[in-house]
Structure formats: structure tokens, C-alpha cells
Amino acid sequence: MSERVDLELIASLVPHGSRVLDLGCGNGALLALLRDSRGCSGYGIELDDAKVLECVQRGVNVIQRNLEEGLSIFEDNSFDVVLQLDTLQHLRNTEAMLRETARVGHVGILTFPNFAHWPNRLQVLAGRMPVTKTLPYEWYDTPNIRVGTHADFEVLARRNGLRVIESFGLRNGRAVRRLPNLLAPTALFKFERG
């Protein structure tokens, strides 16, 4: 998730002045945008050395940590918003991280590549694993542990005691509200404890 228009749309979902935790914050671009345009503060968590350095160069507070270790370093309700953008598919214990996200933040905002997007379906129908802009890796060289669909997350959220506040797909910086499971390459959910 690096396109500026997508980041701006996601930033618009974060209330002004929020305290934000960005899980897998990458180079810190979204946190810098939130700080500069919405008066937000907070931290990013990132594992990659080069990306941590980019965060520091942007003036973004960053903690170098493996998300598989959880969020035990944070108290309950430490943040207004916890962002988890394109990280869920890389984690082994998805459900635990969702519960942790809901524990440390009042609201969670999550995105992940939507495997049910129509070009992906066509590639699977042709007998191939999809390689697209949102799923850019061959099956044998992917950092993704799993794939998911927009429709699947609703079930996962309910099973973990989360209430979906808002959901839609993302395509080229625009919200896709009609048939997001079919028409959007990225799924987006805003949720809270149920």
C-alpha cells in the first residue's frame, strides 16, 4: 500500500488529532501524512532496517519489532486508531493480531489484497496463481503466508468479537462500495471491539 491516493483515502478515515499506531508502517509515509495534514501523533512498528531508517529520516516515531511478537509493550486502549495496512497476510497468527489490534486501539483500520478480485479469479480459472499489482509475487516467491477475500473478513471479525464499522474495497485511490469482493483489488475494513 504505497500509492499516495490510497494513503490519502485511508488518512481521511482517521479523525483529526488521533493517537495512531501503524503496524508494519513501512517507510512511514502514512504516519507523516497523518502528522502533517491531520495533526495526529503516534508510532509505527516496522522490522525492516532500511524502512526504519526512512521513518527516522521523515521524523516518524518508529519501533523496530517483529509483529509476530504481539503488542504486549502497549497498554489497553493506548491508541485511538491502529492501522494494519497490508500486513495481515504476512502474519502467522492472524486472529491473535486482530484481537491485539482491538485491545490497544479503540478503532482498527485494516487492508489486505483481495484474492477474490475478478482478475485473480480469471487467473485461477486459467490454472495459475494470480500475479497482479496487489499480489505481485509468484506463488513460490511470495512473502504472503495466506490470501483472503473481502467476504472472508466479515466472518473472521465476528468470530473474534469485532464489529465492522465500515467496509469497502480500494481501487486507484477510490472506494469501491458496490460488489467490493469482485471489483476491488484491496479490501478495507474499519472495526472495533464488539
TrEMBL record:
The lineage of its organism: Bacteria, Pseudomonadati, Pseudomonadota, Betaproteobacteria, Burkholderiales. This is Methionine biosynthesis protein MetW. It comes from the Bacteria. It comes from Rivibacter subsaxonicus. CDD domains: AdoMet_MTases. SUPFAM superfamilies: S-adenosyl-L-methionine-dependent methyltransferases (SSF53335). InterPro entries: Methionine_synth_MetW, SAM-dependent_MTases_sf.
